[in-house]
């Protein structure tokens, strides 16, 4: 079997499909049904899929982890769309973190959150 060479553009394409189905009939489109249920339900699905991915990451097969990861990414993209984010918004955040230690980046967010809580 020949392995297809894919890259992150598959997520951009999936996001376009998600956006195109936003106003479809919820009876025939899972994506439209999610949008129809609202952000809270979409966020709940992201949490469920994340939990399933974690379980498969610890105790499942590579294939099961890949399946659950795909489900998680799909639901995360739906959540981004529901909240008005695009993949480019996320890619910019990731690009801005290049060359910064993960520990230092997280500490900078903690300080900012602490400042907001105190203010």
Topology:
Blueprint: H1 9-20, H2 30-37, H3 39-59, H4 62-82, H5 87-96, H6 102-118
Number of strands: 0
Q: Compute the number of helices.
A: 6
Mean pLDDT value? 89
Biggest β-sheet strands, sense, barrel: none
Overall geometry comes to globular
Strand residue percentage: under 5%
Estimated helix fraction: over 70%
Radius of gyration: 17 Å
Structural class: mainly alpha
Q: Give the N-terminus to C-terminus distance in angstroms.
A: 59 Å
Task: Please write the string of helix (H) and strand (E) elements.
Answer: HHHHHH
Low-confidence stretches: none
Question: What labels describe this entry?
Answer:
mainly alpha
Report on the architecture of this protein.
With 119 residues, this protein is an all-alpha fold. 75% of the residues lie in helices and 0% in strands. The protein has six helices and no strands. The mean pLDDT is 89.
């Amino acid at each position: 079997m020949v392995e297809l060479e894919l890259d992150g553009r598959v997520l951009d394409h999936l996001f376009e499909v998600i956006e195109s189905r936003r106003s479809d009939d919820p009876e025939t489109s899972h994506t439209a049904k999610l949008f129809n249920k609202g952000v809270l339900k979409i966020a709940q699905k992201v949490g469920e899929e994340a939990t399933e991915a974690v379980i498969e990451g610890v105790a499942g097969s590579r294939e099961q982890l890949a399946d659950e990861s795909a489900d998680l990414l799909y639901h995360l993209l739906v959540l981004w769309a529901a909240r008005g984010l695009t993949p480019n918004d996320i890619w910019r955040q990731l690009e801005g973190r290049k060359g910064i230690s993960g520990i230092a980046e997280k500490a900078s967010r903690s300080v900012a959150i602490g400042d907001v809580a105190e203010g």
